[in-house]
Specification:
The chain folds into two domains: 101 residues; 191 residues, Rossmann fold (3-Layer(aba) Sandwich). It is 59% helix and 10% strand. The protein is built from twelve helices and seven strands. A five-stranded parallel sheet has the order 4-5-6-3-7, sandwiched between helices. A two-stranded antiparallel ribbon has the order 1-2. Strand 1 and strand 2 form a beta hairpin. The protein starts with a helix and ends with a helix. It binds zinc ion. The site of zinc ion has 5 residues, from loops.
Length: 318
């Protein structure tokens, strides 16, 4: 689902809920007319009054107009009290700001923005374990505090966690760096990039997250079919694109050029990208051609994840 579709769906939901409430209110009022004679009388009086108000307004009889308006107000209040005591909802809106239209001055209301964020996270949760991958539950105790030939895993990962948090906090879709997370499987690359995606989606940024396998398969399918939902266009233009597990996909010549085009187009537009991979630079160079490797080396901030496979450690613990 694209960002635009997310917003459209939320507006539809808000407007449909408003119509449903209005229909329910109407139904309740009809029922109450049969049960409560005073309520039925008020409804009749009110509908008889409205043409009188219009006539007084047209004729310019201000004294009569004020008198009629007062009567309408008094009856309206009594009607509202009777409705409320019968448990029938009043004319209140779920969102007072936009009166459940979804728009304020032609722009999306805050209620829609919030709903769209939640929907975007829900959509992400359907394809990735976003709920269990947050900054709060990134467990540094799995990384040994010992010097190895690659460095001290605990120190390195503490540093990377801090970098990811700060990156998210200071995120600017036109200024932030692109990041390259390198390292073996099970060292937390997916965890940290999902945590970043979650935080940024909740702040209203347009984030697309996907495994290289899913992203490129979808784009390749789109490219070779009649139907085009412009997934490639969304991926190159979103605020942050996160490509998880680069190298986990089948690399056809088409995918090779796709990877280059995405990386290059986003760099030229100064749009940040986060790429995770288990591959070494030499392997990237070989699999995706030297021009991809040179872009990554020259333009991305690379961080090497070190330690031993956390998924294995967790399953041993169990
Ligand atoms: Zn609203």
């Amino acid at each position: 689902m694209t960002r635009k579709e997310c917003y459209e769906q939320c507006v539809n939901e808000v407007q449909n809920a408003r119509l449903a409430r209005a229909a329910k209110r109407e139904e309740g009022a009809e029922r109450l007319k049969k049960e409560n004679p005073r309520f039925a009388e008020i409804c009749e009086l009110l509908s008889a009054l409205s043409p009188k108000v219009a006539r007084a307004a047209i004729s310019g009889d201000t004294v009569e107009l004020e008198h009629l308006k007062d009567t309408v107000t008094v009856l309206g209040k009594e009607r509202a009290v009777l409705l409320k005591s019968a448990g029938i909802g009043g004319d209140d809106f779920a969102c007072e700001k936009c009166r459940d239209t979804g728009f304020v001055n032609g722009k999306y209301c805050d209620c829609i923005k919030q709903a769209a964020r939640e929907l975007a996270v829900k959509n992400l949760a359907a394809v990735a374990p976003v709920d269990s991958c947050r900054f709060e539950n990134f467990d540094l105790s799995f990384y040994p505090d010992a010097d190895t030939e690659n460095g001290n895993p605990k120190k390195r990962m503490t540093e990377i966690l801090k970098l990811c948090k700060e990156y998210t906090l200071n995120f600017d879709p036109e200024k932030s760096d692109s990041l390259l997370f390198i390292g073996n499987t099970g060292l937390g690359k997916t965890h940290l990039s999902l945590a970043m995606a979650y935080e940024l989606l909740m702040r209203g940024f347009d984030v697309i997250y996907g495994s290289a396998y899913n992203l490129f398969a979808r784009m390749e399918k789109e490219h070779f079919s009649e139907h085009n939902d412009n997934y490639y266009g969304d991926a190159v233009s979103c605020d942050l694109l996160i490509i998880d597990d680069l190298g986990g996909e089948f690399v056809s010549p088409y995918v090779q050029s796709l990877v280059y085009n995405i990386i290059n187009t986003r760099l030229l537009a100064r749009k940040p990208t986060v790429i995770n991979t288990n591959l070494s630079m030499a392997e990237i160079n070989r699999i995706y051609t030297p021009r991809v490797a040179s872009r990554l080396l020259g333009e991305y901030v690379a961080k090497k994840f070190i330690g031993s496979d956390i998924r294995q450690q967790k399953s041993i613990k169990k």
